[in-house]
Each structure stands twice: as structure tokens, then as C-alpha cells.
Write a structure and sequence with these properties.
Layout: E1 2-6, H1 11-22, E2 29-33, E3 42-45, E4 48-51, H2 55-60, E5 65-68, H3 72-84, E6 88-91, H4 107-110, E7 120-122, H5 126-142, E8 144-153, H6 160-170, H7 201-214, E9 220-227, E10 234-242, H8 248-256, E11 261-263, H9 275-278, E12 284-291, E13 298-305, H10 309-325
Parallel strand pairs: 1-2, 1-5, 5-6, 6-7, 8-9, 11-12
Antiparallel strand pairs: 3-4, 8-10, 10-13, 12-13
Length: 329
């Protein structure tokens, strides 16, 4: 089993390597891939050192699986080149997510759709992954009619430059800015670039990707994405309107039994999800579950997850695990 990690020195790439190691994914040959400035350097994995190579050399090595986290442009150019030598690409960028015929996979929800013919598989957006983990079982039982989403997203979702900006501002150091404004002691209603409809790309990802993963284009969805000064973990306030009636105890029971979801929902003990506790974990946490008393069949909940793990690296590795288990690579 040859596995390439494209973008191995980046924030998500480094977490991918940690996840591969912690989950003991079987790798006979690791191929770390990064930009030209990193070629020839070494990284450590499971106590051994591996030399970083360029994309062309990685393609020539014909890996069985390539985990991509190197941006959309790189994915658009190089994923087909890996595909041409028989490699299955699991891509963490937004490049392939909404492309017709390319599958958008959260293993607990729709990995059963994968076949040997799927050579470029899209990993969803971090905010989408954690949300649909909670929504999928609820949609199956009660049918979701409409979603109103507000996100509170960590600076780590932007990358190393944004994390450094926050650290600099906390320490009173002037430095390079990832955002148009300070992020320390602030909240920016601005995740990714603005589109013509006034929404950001991040907000529209939540709309389009959710419908694709749940396989239901009829769901009404609107979103506001906000960047906040936390260094890890995304939080979401999600208002759900169902077509069918529900009982709160049934909702809690269903979510507590859902693989990959942890229920933290006890206001008597101030038990609810927070990014500080989700950091470094692979689960999705849900709490503050309550009726929306302003409408019929309405529900409010609060969803938190580590955006670099289940929101990115862990989900990609889980896809790889499924492919290997079912002999699809």
C-alpha cells in the first residue's frame, strides 16, 4: 500500500499524518509531497524519516491512494494526473465537490456509494461535515424542510497565516494580516470571498454540499459564516424545521446512538459542546437541543467539532479506510 500525502507540510497535511499514525492505517510506502521549497527535506512518520518529493515524482511512483490538501488549483491540475496512473485521489479542497459525477463523501453517511471506478473523491467542507453528521439521522427519520445556519469558525480554518495573525495580535506584535481586520477580540462575518448574491463562498458551500450529501435538493438552506478568535474547532448554531413531528427525548436518543456523534446536552450541569474540549478529537459534539417555539416542528441545536480532524484529515483517512476495507483500491 503506497500512500501519498500531497501538502504534507501544511496545516491539514500534518494532521493527516498524525491521523494516519494514530489510526494505524497500513502503509508500506509513504510518499510525502510538498511545494518546491520543501523538496528534499525529511519528515518523521512512525519513527522513520521520509524524504519529501515533488508532484511529478509522486505521480511516477504510482501510489494506491493520494490524500490531497494543497489547494484547489493544485487539485484541478494534478488529481487527473494521479488518476491516469491508477491512483485514487481523496481531495480536501473545494475543487471537485460540486462536479457532476464526483462523489462528496462523509463515510458514516454515504460511503456505500463508492465504487472502484471512483478515482477522484471529494472531502466536504469542514463546517459541512460536522453539521451533516448530526443532520443525516434526523433527516432520515423526520425529513428536514429548512435549515438556518450560523457558524463560529476558528482561524485555523483559514490556515497558518491566520493563526499567526491571531497570535501576533494577542502578543501585541505587528505582522502579516490574513484578514482585512484584526481578529483578536473581534468577530468577522466574512469567511472566504463574497459572491454576487452577497453570501460568501463558505456560506454557499454549506448550502450546496449539504443538499448533495443528504441527496435532497428540496431542503431550504441559508447560512451566515463568522470567523472568531479561537485557534481550533468550529461551532455552529443550527435551526432545523422538520416536515414531521418529533419528540425531544427521541431526538436525543437517536443522536446518542449515532456513530461519530457525542451528545453533550445537560443544562443542569452546564454540559454543552465547546471547541476547547473538541480540540484533538475525531467526534462531532452536539448539545443545547431544544424546540424552536416560534414555529411548528422546529429544533435548535449547537454543533462543535475539530475542523482539522473530522472536518478535514480524519474524514479523508476514514474514506481511505473504507476503500481498503472494501477492496476498492
Amino acid at each position: 500500500m503506497k500512500v501519498a500525502v500531497v501538502g504534507a507540510t501544511g496545516m491539514v497535511g500534518e494532521v493527516m499524518l498524525k491521523v494516519l499514525e494514530s489510526r494505524n492505517f497500513q502503509i508500506d510506502e509513504l510518499i510525502p509531497v510538498a511545494s518546491e521549497k520543501s523538496i528534499g527535506k525529511q519528515i518523521e512518520f512512525k519513527g522513520k524519516f521520509f524524504k519529501i518529493v515533488g508532484l511529478a515524482d509522486a505521480v511516477a511512483l504510482k501510489p494506491n491512494i493520494a490524500l490531497f490538501s494543497a489547494g484547489g488549483e493544485t487539485s484541478l491540475e494534478w488529481a487527473p494526473k494521479f488518476e491516469s496512473v491508477g491512483t485514487t485521489v481523496i481531495d480536501n479542497s473545494s475543487a471537485w465537490r460540486m462536479v457532476e459525477g464526483k462523489k462528496l463523501i462523509v463515510p458514516e453517511i454515504n460511503a456505500h456509494l463508492l465504487t472502484r471506478a471512483d478515482k477522484i473523491i471529494a472531502n466536504p467542507n469542514c463546517s459541512t461535515i460536522q453539521m451533516v453528521m448530526v443532520l443525516a439521522p434526523l433527516h432520515k427519520k423526520y425529513k428536514i424542510k429548512r435549515l438556518v445556519i450560523s457558524t463560529y469558525q476558528s482561524v485555523s480554518g483559514t490556515g497558518v497565516k491566520a493563526v499567526k495573525q491571531l497570535e501576533n495580535e494577542m502578543n501585541g506584535v505587528k505582522g502579516e494580516m490574513a484578514y482585512p481586520y484584526p481578529i483578536h477580540r473581534n468577530a468577522l462575518p466574512h469567511c472566504d470571498v463574497f459572491e454576487e448574491n452577497g453570501y460568501t463562498k463558505e456560506e454557499m458551500k454549506l448550502v450546496k454540499e449539504t443538499r448533495k450529501i443528504l441527496d435532497d435538493a428540496s431542503i431550504g438552506i441559508t447560512a451566515t459564516a463568522v470567523r472568531i478568535p479561537t485557534s481550533g474547532g468550529h461551532s455552529e448554531s443550527v435551526n432545523i424545521e422538520f416536515e414531521n413531528e418529533f419528540n425531544l427525548s427521541d431526538i436525543r436518543a437517536l443522536l446518542s446512538e449515532t456513530q461519530g456523534v457525542v451528545l453533550q446536552d445537560n443544562t443542569d450541569t452546564n454540559t454543552y459542546p465547546m471547541p476547547i474540549f473538541a480540540h484533538g478529537k475525531d467526534d462531532v459534539f452536539v448539545g443545547r437541543i431544544r424546540r424552536d417555539e416560534s414555529t411548528t416542528n422546529g429544533l435548535n441545536c449547537w454543533i462543535v467539532s475539530d475542523n482539522l480532524r473530522k472536518g478535514a484529515a480524519t474524514n479523508a483517512v476514514q474514506i481511505a479506510e473504507y476503500l481498503v476495507k472494501h477492496q476498492l483500491v
